[in-house]
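Sequence in, structure out.
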Amino acid sequence: MTNTVKLALEDGSVFTGESFGAPGEVDGEVVFNTSMTGYQEILTDPSYRGQIVTMTYPEIGNYGVNQEDLESRRPHLAGFIVRELSRVTSNFRATGSLDEYLKKHGVVGMAGIDTRRLVRLIRSRGAMKGVLSTIELDDERLVAKAKASPGLVGRDLVQEVLPKEPIEWTEKLGPWANWANQPGTLPEAGQADKQPLHVVALDFGMKWNIARHLHERGCRVTVLPGTATVEEILALNPDGVFLSNGPGDPEPLYYAIETIRELLGKKPVFGICLGHQLLGLASGAKTFKLKFGHRGANQPVINLLSGKVEITSQNHGFSVDEESIPDDVEVTHRNLNDETVAGLRHRKLPAFSVQYHPEASAGPHDSHYLFDEFCEMMRQHQAK
């Protein structure tokens, strides 16, 4: 790596590092992720659309990349920043290096900066707009570009990551995911429902491991674009509707909010991450932007119904405002780092959601039970 790359933030801060991946210039909200592993899953998570992601762990890239750990067809983030890019790729599953992968997909990378300083800036001043460039290297012009960039608030980034066509999901969890599951968390062979539960998954930028978990539990999974109408959803006669994760600000997604509002009471609903925020908005609550968001695989959450603490994988910059939650919705989970809402449940209707990733790819497996709870909710609704 010999090429220079610069990161400029809207507050005037400028970092100079070594370029890897593709050359170019991108803008986005600069955020950080505290995961020690899982960089490939982070790269291909559509929820990172419009963001420049900084990894807090100092060395990234040591185990390369492979085709099994993808969470979508390609990377979606705007740029990728690491303290040190590993010079060695060492893993029997690897099919290439991180540098090669970013070059192939046109993602601008930056290495060799003090990521601790950058993270401290974000933590003290909040997530900021930034520009990452190998083309423009003048500090003043880069800072001006960062200030003029659009940011995330008020933008509908879901439109940039939506699937084009409905699909029937057929892929189960891979052997490594099954090996890591605790006994009893997945159905035993031959014990899947004779008539599989049919889940319509509204894809706002869904991680593939979510659909894998549903399919592994014997569900038939039909994936629809998040813009699907109530009529299109109900025409498929699903047993339940899943609301996926996705990028950006939930409030501009008026079409999804209205669709979910009309679905409530008609079908069981389960939402994750952006889907959680959309369920909150559809139920009458409001959302707000967090100072620097929650991104990592080690976020503690308490389940208020069971009293158990779960270590969770999270990636979001917005949260449901607890004071705005209506009386017919209760808080079921809470983030222990900042006390924000991490789970909701409707008191009267079959609908619940969490502000984290129970499919946890990569990450802990404490929250897999939520997929089982969704399946049980659908069975109970069937029996009525």
